[in-house]
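Appendix C reproduces, verbatim, an entry submitted by the partner laboratory led by Prof. M.T., so that reviewers can inspect both the input and the predicted structure.
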Amino acid sequence: MYWAEDRLGHERIKGAYAYKDLLKAYGKVALGTDFPVEYVSPFYTFYSAVARQDLKQYPEGGFQMENALSREETLKGMTIWAAFSNFEDHEKGSIEAGKFADFLYLTRILWKFL
């Protein structure tokens, strides 16, 4: 988002990072990191999809907030929809008998928007 408009132009930036528009058009949005460009952290991915900001809360008010995802949409995008996009939804992505699962137990909430 820092340099995207300079490279894409004023008109094309409107369609960049258009998560909500993609979700409306297709019904699923697979989310992940762009390592090594971005941090490899599901927490950062979750935060940026919902808040549409970096960890320093830039830009103020969020980047193209009309394309922000809800917390539920983001969680699905990081789990079942990501597995679906990789043709692995039959073995991971949701908590069901017979599927692989990793669990994380958090004792406190880290961000104010959660």
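The CA atoms of residues 43 and 110 lie 9 Å apart. Additional entries are available on request from the coordinating office.
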